[in-house]
Design brief:
about 100 residues, alpha+beta, Alpha-Beta Plaits, 3 helices, 5 strands, about 20% helix, globular
Length: about 100
């Protein structure tokens, strides 16, 4: 009888992505993009940020963006260390943490 070994190389943690859209995505769509935060930039763009488990999930998110009809500007994988940097020009919506909303 032989043993089956499962490779741990295929099990990755979710990667952080930033999806930039032209236009401001209405907050009513937040449930469609569960787990992602919305940031509204002064230049009229929306940035969706959050963990994405794999490429299939990323393509699913991009399909949702396409279905809403908002132009896609960029998709980038973000270094988690850079994701926490303060951005004074950003105006985040309902997904702010308690720490941010209590000030």
């Amino acid at each position: 009888m032989s043993e089956t070994h499962v490779s741990t190389e295929d099990h990755h943690e979710a990667e952080l992505y930033e999806i930039r859209l032209k236009g401001h995505l209405d907050a009513r769509w937040a449930d469609r993009f569960e787990g992602l935060s919305f940031t509204y930039e002064n230049d009229g763009t929306t940035i969706l940020t959050g963990p994405v488990v794999d490429q299939a999930a990323l393509h699913g998110l991009l399909r949702k963006v396409r279905d809403l009809g908002l132009p896609l500007i960029s998709v980038i994988q973000v270094d988690p260390k850079q994701a926490n940097r303060p951005d004074a020009s950003a105006d985040t919506d309902h997904n702010r943490s308690k720490k941010e909303t209590n000030t």
